[in-house]
Amino acid sequence: MVADVEPFQPGRLTGPVKVFAKLVESWNLSDDDASVFLGFEPADKNLVRSILEGRTTLRGRDAKDRITSLYVIWSILTTMFGDAVTATRWMSERQRALGDKSPITLLKEGSMENLLRVKHLVEFIAGHVS
User: How many whole angstroms separate alpha carbon 58 and alpha carbon 39?
Assistant: First the structure.
């Protein structure tokens, strides 16, 4: 039996897209940066803007997995620091454990490896992993 699939409704944002839109705002990301964070090229910024505005649906496991990891980072940091401003400031500070680069700099490079490095560091600092 095939489950019914709800048709795309323009203007409706799904949970992952809402989460990502909040991150884009909190971290003050450009459209180019937002594209790279989702695993797209900067040239795809119009597609990403369309997704964030609900005119196009988010497709692809990679982009959704990236949003999940970004949410984990954001959630742990805002809980650990108590507010989004301090968490965002930490994202811009150089970290010795990241080769003296800031987490946001690594994320802007766009690789899944860097995303997972930042996520692992945040989880480690928060005591979620050993």
Answer: 12
Q: What are the extents of the domains in the chain?
A: 15-125
Letter string b/e over residues 13-38, b meaning 16 or more CB atoms within 10 A of that residue's CB: beebbebbbebbebbebebbbbbbbb
* Distance, C-alpha 51 to centroid of its chain: 14
Please write the tens of the pLDDT for every residue from 27-58. Answer: 999 999 999 999 999 999 999 999 888 888 88
Q: Rounded to 10 degrees, what is the CA torsion of 94, 74, 35, 89? A: -40
* Span 71-125, pLDDT tens digits: 999 999 999 999 999 999 999 999 999 999 999 999 999 999 999 999 999 999 9
Judged by DSSP in three states, 101 sits in strand
Half-sphere exposure (Cβ direction) of 6: Cα atoms closer than 13 Å = 6
103: Cα within 13 Å, side-chain hemisphere: 20
